[in-house]
Design a protein that fits this description.
The protein is built from seven helices and no strands. Keywords: ATP-binding, Hydrolase, Metal-binding, Metalloprotease, Nucleotide-binding, Protease, Zinc.
């Protein structure tokens, strides 16, 4: 969540305003917060429960499978979760304001920065360089072998192969 809020918080700290791009980040973070609470059971007040998504509840008779009171608790917990992530993001960026200003100035000159640009500006990441995982070629994927006399066999039987020649 903090990573998604980084742009919004940075704009607020450096430029004292927030653009529409940061608005999209807030939508994503809000969706993450509700998913943690409603789908993944990651909230102490709600407990280990998983509720269907908005799309899944469209076909429910009688509406949502939880009360209005519980919906209000979910809303409050989502607000608290996003606020906590916002404050944490603000704290991290304030602690690194010198690096943030360098990046903000560079972004004003060149609209985007890649990994190498950022590393040149503020140095390597504190937990070591970025490691890329090489793609592993596992060869062609083949269907599971079936018995030759099975009707679902991917291979023709010997007699079928000879008659098709």
């Amino acid at each position: 969540m903090c990573m998604a809020l980084g742009g919004r918080v940075a704009e607020s700290l450096i430029f004292n305003k927030v653009t529409t791009g940061a608005q999209d980040d807030l939508k994503k973070v809000t969706k993450m917060a509700y998913a943690q609470i409603k789908q993944y059971g990651m909230n102490e007040d709600i407990g280990l429960l998983a509720f269907p998504t908005e799309e899944e509840t469209k076909n429910f008779i009688g509406g949502k499978p939880f009360s209005r009171k519980l919906a209000n608790v979910m809303d409050e917990q989502a607000r608290l979760l996003v606020a906590k992530a916002y404050k944490k993001t603000e704290m991290v960026l304030c602690e690194n304001k010198d690096k943030l200003k360098l990046m903000a100035e560079a972004l004003l000159q060149r609209e985007t920065l890649n990994y190498l640009d950022i590393e040149a500006l503020i140095g390597p990441p504190p937990h070591g360089k970025k490691k890329l995982i090489e793609e592993l070629d596992l060869g062609p994927i083949t269907p599971e072998k079936a018995k030759p006399d099975s009707p679902k066999s991917p291979r023709p039987t010997e007699s079928e192969a000879q008659t098709s020649k």
